[in-house]
Backbone:
């Protein structure tokens, strides 16, 4: 069974200006996979997740969660999902333990199961030692981890996470990644939105890139990388003025005195690095990243 499915989903916001946030989005997510919606700010990621989580009505189309219709069966869907909203705020007088314990208890879990899950979730996000401190005294990142832990502690079949690691430091972010992958290996389904390219590349089973309300690419990370004609990148630091390193109209992007040059062939990339080093410049090569392809696809790059 498909965990999440949308068919030609449209969402129009009416106000001072009419905004078509989703323009016929059709997506299918399998049970037991981590599916990431990747896109720039304002692309429609949060709108899609809010519709799937039964928080927002759509304008046209169809949407289903575990076969239940989002429009006509929202109460059934809510039994199977846990949500971490992008802008979620903690209650100041709640502790991390209370977040996990009481929200899980409300889902009908036994006290013993709630206690086991709460401890496991808080240890996973490294809040166990802070479990009895009220959230008012926690840092922003610690508060975010408390909210994530409350979702992890649930027995929900599907976790809907809207940019859950934004604001976390690199160490905390990677620990959350490890927990999410462990949950998927246990058969849980996760729909994640993010604009962090490394996050999408490291933990996703499949990715959909959404831009201006439309899905412009979908597949595994490697399949999406395969959409680019260039397969390698060379980063050169130092002025290229007066050199003849750039040939064959290779695509190049400047960042001050650094340039990224994209090439189709690894041998060509290696030769370019050698030539740059002979000129006394710093240079290195590597396969293209998901971010390289993403920026090219959304049209945010100037050659």
Residues:
């Amino acid at each position: 069974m498909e965990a999440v499915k949308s068919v030609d989903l449209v969402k129009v916001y009416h106000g001072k200006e009419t905004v078509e946030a989703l323009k016929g989005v059709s997506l299918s997510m399998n049970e037991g996979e981590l599916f990431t919606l990747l896109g720039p700010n304002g692309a429609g990621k949060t709108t899609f997740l809010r519709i799937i989580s039964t928080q927002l009505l759509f304008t046209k189309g169809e949407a289903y969660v575990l076969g239940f219709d989002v429009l006509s069966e929202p109460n059934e869907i809510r039994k199977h999902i846990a949500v971490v909203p992008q802008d979620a705020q903690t209650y100041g007088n709640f502790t991390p333990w209370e977040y996990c314990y009481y929200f899980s208890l409300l889902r009908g879990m036994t006290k013993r199961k709630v206690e086991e899950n709460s401890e496991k979730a808080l240890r996973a996000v490294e809040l166990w030692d802070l479990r009895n401190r009220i959230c008012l005294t926690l840092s922003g990142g610690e508060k975010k981890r408390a909210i994530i832990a409350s979702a992890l502690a649930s027995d929900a079949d599907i976790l809907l996470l809207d940019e859950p690691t934004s604001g976390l430091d690199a160490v905390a972010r990677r620990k959350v990644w490890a927990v999410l992958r462990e949950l998927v290996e246990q058969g849980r389904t996760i729909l994640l939105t993010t604009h962090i390219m490394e996050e999408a590349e490291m933990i996703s089973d499949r990715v959909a890139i959404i831009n201006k309300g439309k899905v412009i690419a979908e597949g595994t990370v490697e399949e999406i990388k395969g959409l680019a004609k260039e397969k390698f990148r060379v980063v050169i630091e130092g002025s290229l003025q007066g050199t003849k390193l750039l040939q064959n109209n290779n695509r190049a992007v400047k960042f001050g005195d650094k340039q990224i040059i994209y090439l189709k062939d690894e041998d060509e990339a290696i030769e370019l690095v050698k030539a740059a080093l002979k000129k006394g410049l710093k240079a290195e090569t590597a396969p293209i990243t998901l971010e390289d392809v993403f920026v090219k696809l959304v049209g945010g790059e100037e050659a």
In short: The two ends are 44 Å apart (CA to CA). The longest strand covers residues 2-13. The mean pLDDT is 90. DSSP finds ten helices and 14 strands in the chain.
